[in-house]
Each structure stands twice: as structure tokens, then as C-alpha cells.
Hints:
The first copy, chain A, is of the alpha+beta class. Chain A has helices spanning 2-9, 12-15, 19-27, 84-87, 109-118, 120-146, 149-164, 180-187, 191-203, 219-226; strands at 30-34, 39-41, 49-55, 58-63, 69-75, 80-81, 95-98, 102-108, 165-168, 171-174, 207-210, 213-216.
Amino acid sequence: MDETNEVLRKAPLFEALDEEAAAALRASVSEVRLGRGQTLFSEGDEGDRLYVVLSGKVKLTRSAVDGRENLLAVLGPSEMFGELSLFDPRPRTASAVAVTDTVLAGLGHDDLRPFIVSQPHVSLQLLKALAARLRRTNDVMSDLVFTDVPGRVAKQLLELADKFGKEGEDGLHVHHDLTQEELAQLVGASRETVNKALAEFALRGWLRIEAKAVVLLDVERMRRRAR
Amino acid sequence: MDETNEVLRKAPLFEALDEEAAAALRASVSEVRLGRGQTLFSEGDEGDRLYVVLSGKVKLTRSAVDGRENLLAVLGPSEMFGELSLFDPRPRTASAVAVTDTVLAGLGHDDLRPFIVSQPHVSLQLLKALAARLRRTNDVMSDLVFTDVPGRVAKQLLELADKFGKEGEDGLHVHHDLTQEELAQLVGASRETVNKALAEFALRGWLRIEAKAVVLLDVERMRRRAR
DNA sequence: TCAACAGTGTGACGTATATCGCACCCGTGT
DNA sequence: ACACGGGTGCGATATACGTCACACTGTTGA
């Protein structure tokens, strides 16, 4: 379907391919549908596929021995995940779970490898994508050390706004589809503390809280609070 | 010099090259010497070179607005750094400072690019290296969220032991060359808390503290404390 | 229509860790 | 030989945040 192609085209992997190669690769794509809460793969699984989100949202999580969890990322349309095991073949180090009903494009590593070897652009594009992600995770690490919980919440909301935000009459609507529990796991804090931070922001008129969403009313002040 | 070649050969970048290509690349290497505390480059600099440590140790640091610092890594012989700007050309996001007197091999990006494009092995090797590092930083992030300071110290000492440890009569000598302040920045904690954690470990007979080094006496217990 | 339950809001309390303060130690240079 | 500065050891205090407890809300489904 056209919609699918449109979304795929924007994925970093496909951007680097010429039209012919992209068509060839699309032929080996298999579609996966997940309902909210369904898990695609789990930590420790063997993995030989990577995925591109076509619609919906997926969270990548790691869990500690005692069951506590930690979100590495929430991924939306055109974003790619599960590719680490392609370059460095080891069991998955995170689980992938659908946050909303989701459609994914799955690609076997064996289908992909020829394109990587034959088209130098592709490797360069992938290297660039990984380098950017490495920078990003380093940022997150610094934040965990230097920034307090309200600051991390503010920063995270601004990032979610970049990804999922829609400008509306009354502010910037960020329909992140996350429970406060999940948001807390994403910033590395407890559900309660995150709730209090949100309440504080709302009290100051910087945002409005909605079900699995927030409406940012004063982005500038949120930015200042985040650093 | 032979010594230099020996160390370079082990670097992930050179491992993937055949003998001829490696020799060609070595020709464009420039050597850099740094004294303890000297900085090679700083956050925000434009960077178009990557480096391989030939001897000594280098720390990669990021600093917050208020001057507090955060160590991303301590790198020893054969380790590579500064390559992110090669794939994703942006200003440096960390500073590089010599922890001891250090000799580096510097390589201009322009010298490197042809090898990457022409030899598919090289890109794959680099992708693998980046993927591994991404996994590692994800681990560190989880630790920051789930593990207390003593646990992070234990884990970090074990990692330093893997890199720099030498088995001796009386235990595993880890000459890390870091002040406790730097060790603290590496695990994301204050100097004092790290000091107390070390003192506690020493009291229990798990390790002995020496100047810019520790001697691990009970690796097994340290491991258990780390998780 | 009412249970049942997942998600949210908020206070009371405990604790790990940062911060502050100061004493000590040891190598370096004058 | 001495002072000096960087590094270390360690107690006292402050605080951000986790944990616990419970009440409230809205949605689902029998």
C-alpha cells in the first residue's frame, strides 16, 4: 500500500537506497501487527530481524532482576529498532512492546546484508544513525547525573513534543500514549515523583494534563526548566 | 616503530584492513604527545580527526553549565575515540584530556573515508564497534537508575580491572591512574560517597586502596556487590 | 447498574546521597 | 627542611527522592 511506502521511505535505512534497491528490499518486508501491550520480542531472545514502525508506537524496555523496568525509548512511525543484533550478533538486550496498536515492517538480516555490502551509502547512513544515537544516549546519561527529576520530565516532554507534538488552538498537544508509570520509567524516576512534577508544571500554567497526553502551554519556560 | 604498529594493529579500525591497506593508512597517521592533564580537544570544537591511544590513558569528559563534570570513559592502548564526528559531522560533544603522559595516533577523516567506502569489511567492523558501545552505554544508563553508588563503584572497578588489571602475588592490581574525584565523575557520584564506598570495601577485605590504584582481593564478592 | 480494576493525585515518612567542613597525608619544589 | 597544594579520609547536616498508604476517577465488562 502507498501509505506504507511513504512511511518506509523516511526511515534512515531506506533514505540511502536508490529507487530500485528500495523496491527490491521492500519485497522482502513482512508486516507485523501488534495490539496494545503485546510484546514483539524480549530481552535475551535471539534476534535476526530489524523493524521499522509503520504506524503506532513501540517502547523498548529493560528490566532489572527485581522486576523494575526502564524505558530506553518510545518509537513512532518511520523509526527503526532491533538493528544492533545485525551488526553485533548477540541476544536482544531490550524488549519491544507495543504502546498502542501498531503495525511494523520486519526485515530479516540476511535480506539486508547484501545491500549494506554493495552500497557504501547505506553503511555510511547507518553509521551516521548509530553515531547520532550514541550522542543522544550520552546526553541522557549526563541528564541522569546532573538534572533533577522535574528537569528530566520537562526535557522528556519536549522531546516527545518534537516527535509526536501537534500544534493546536490552545497549545502544543503531545499525545504520547504513555501512562505516568511509563513516563516515570522513561526518565528513571518513580511514578509518584513524576506525577508531582507534572502537577507542579500544571499549577504554574506551563502545561495541561490529559489522559496519556499533555498540552504544552508555555514551551519557553519548560525549556528553561529543562536545563 | 614496531611497538606502535603492534598497538595499532589491535585497534578495531585496523583489524578489518588487509596488510596493504593498513600500511597505506599508517602512512597518514600523525603522532600526538600529551602530558598528564593536557587537553587534546574540547566540547564544542570542530573535529575532523579520530585517535587511537598508543600508550597512556585518556579520559572523555562532558561538563555541565555549572562546571560539574562527568567522565564518559577512560581509554587505554589500542582504543579509539573521536570517530563520531566522522560519521555525523558535528562539533565534539566531549572533551579529551590525558590522564597520564600519553601518545596518540591521529587520523584525518579525509584520509580515512576512501578506506571505508572501498572496503565493506571496514564499515561492518565499525558498525559492530558502535553497536557494542551503544549496548554498553545502555547498560550504564540502567545502572544509573537501578544501582546504588557502592554498586556502581564495584562494577566500575571490575571494568577497569578488565582493561588495566594485572594479576599479582597478592591480588589483581588495577592501576587506573584516576583520582577519587575522577572515579566519582565516572560513576556519577560525589567524591566523598565514592571514598566511603571504597573505605567500606577495604574494611571488608575485598580490596586494598593504593595511590591511583586498587588491588582487588575478593573479585567474587565484588561481583556480587555489583549486581 | 455495579463491580473490578487500571490509572491518577497527594500526603507522611525513611533514606541514600549531596554538601559542607575540616583534619591529615604526602610528594614537589624552593 | 619547610611550606604548600593536591589528594584523601570522615563526620555532621540538609535534601531530593523513593516508598508506603490511601482515596479518587474513569473505563470496561458482566
